[in-house]
Specification:
Blueprint: E1 4-7, H1 13-27, H2 33-43, H3 46-54, E2 58-65, E3 68-78, E4 81-89, H4 98-111, E5 117-123, H5 127-135, E6 139-148, E7 151-161
Parallel strand pairs: 4-5
Antiparallel strand pairs: 1-2, 2-3, 3-4, 5-7, 6-7
């Protein structure tokens, strides 16, 4: 990957939303456009990002290239488990090693909190996400649902034992 992985700052909020919005629109064909926009606006509102940036045991990282912020990840450790809450790479920059670089830095940053495993949750329909996590050594270990708009969508839980 050409570029840098660094901790996110408050100045990155709009770029994070743009990466999330573009990635969701590119990835989730089954979601209505307005549901994606509402979800991104809700999940990545300024106050939500401010809370994530200041919460102990949390890491929010961005991948930056000459094109600006092209990816980000958000992880948190609870007890001995690291949870990958968000992992996005802009569609124009996927398959360039950015997601792997983000994952490795997140894993290193969260290792200070003595985690024994990492978990990631993604929509079941995201085949690219499934491939990404499996290539990193994660295994499917469960599932659930998430509500967006008035609909429920299937999720998959991936786990990596450390």
């Amino acid at each position: 990957m050409e570029g840098a992985i660094r901790p996110a700052t408050a100045d990155d909020r709009e770029a994070i939303r743009e990466v999330a919005r573009d990635t969701w629109h590119d990835t989730y064909n089954e979601l209505e456009s307005d549901i994606i926009d509402e979800t991104v606006d809700d999940w990545y509102a300024d106050d939500e990002l401010e809370r994530a940036l200041s919460k102990p045991g949390t890491a929010v990282l961005v991948a930056e290239t000459d094109d600006g912020v092209v990816g980000f990840t958000h992880g948190v450790v609870q007890e001995d488990e690291g949870n990958v809450l968000r992992m996005y790479v802009h569609p124009d920059h996927q398959r360039e090693g950015i997601g792997t670089a983000l994952h490795e830095r997140l894993r290193d940053d969260l290792a200070d909190f003595n985690m024994n495993r990492m978990r990631a949750i993604d929509l079941a329909s995201n085949e690219g996400g499934r491939t990404f996590y499996e290539e990193l050594g994660f295994e499917e270990t469960g599932g659930g649902t998430v509500e967006m708009g008035d609909e429920e969508y299937e999720e998959v839980v991936y786990t990596l034992e450390l």
